[in-house]
């Protein structure tokens, strides 16, 4: 019978081999889910009020992006509100694609 040799290693002699550090997974940003806009007379009327208030506070002609930022609503909601106000004759457009109160 073959004799088994006992192998003992000192703790200092034992080198642990560490696996390479796992790369941090880069989380892909999910496309921002678009907020759905309820298309009904009540909701659009409220957005028109937001647009009107933003234009009244600015006291100058604003672009759609500027109105959306001032009113803190999306550009889609801004466009709905603008349509409402144009239909009522409360707005005028300028030559440089901006909107001002009539």
Task: Give an account of the 3D structure.
The protein has 102 residues and is mainly alpha-helical. The protein contains 3 helices and 2 strands. A hairpin with a 5-residue loop joins strand 1 (91-93) and strand 2 (99-101). Helix 1 packs across helix 3. The longest helix is centred in the middle third of the chain and has 18 residues, at 41-58.
Secondary structure layout plus pairing:
Layout: H1 41-58, H2 64-71, H3 75-87, E1 91-93, E2 99-101
Antiparallel strand pairs: 1-2
Helix pairs in contact: 1-2, 1-3, 2-3
Key traits:
single chain, 102 residues, mainly alpha, two-stranded antiparallel sheet
Number of helices: 3
Distance between the termini: 107 Å
Uncertain residue ranges: none
Given helix and strand content, the structural type is: mainly alpha
Q: What is the helix content?
A: 25-40%
Strand content bin: 5-15%
Element-level helix/strand string: HHHEE
What would the average pLDDT be, to the nearest integer? 82
What's the gyration radius in Å?
32 Å
Q: Largest beta sheet, briefly? A: 2 strands, antiparallel
What is the molecular shape? rod-shaped
Strand order of the largest sheet: 1-2
Total strand segments: 2
């Amino acid at each position: 019978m073959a004799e088994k040799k006992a192998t003992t290693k000192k703790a200092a002699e034992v080198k642990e081999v560490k696996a390479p550090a796992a790369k941090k997974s880069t989380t892909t940003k999910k496309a921002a889910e678009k907020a759905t806009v309820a298309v009904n007379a009540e909701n659009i009327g409220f957005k028109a009020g937001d647009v009107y208030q933003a234009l009244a506070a600015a006291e100058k002609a604003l672009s759609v992006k500027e109105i959306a930022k001032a009113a803190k609503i999306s550009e889609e909601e801004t466009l709905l509100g603008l349509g409402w106000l144009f239909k009522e004759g409360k707005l005028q457009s300028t030559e440089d694609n901006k909107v001002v109160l009539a």
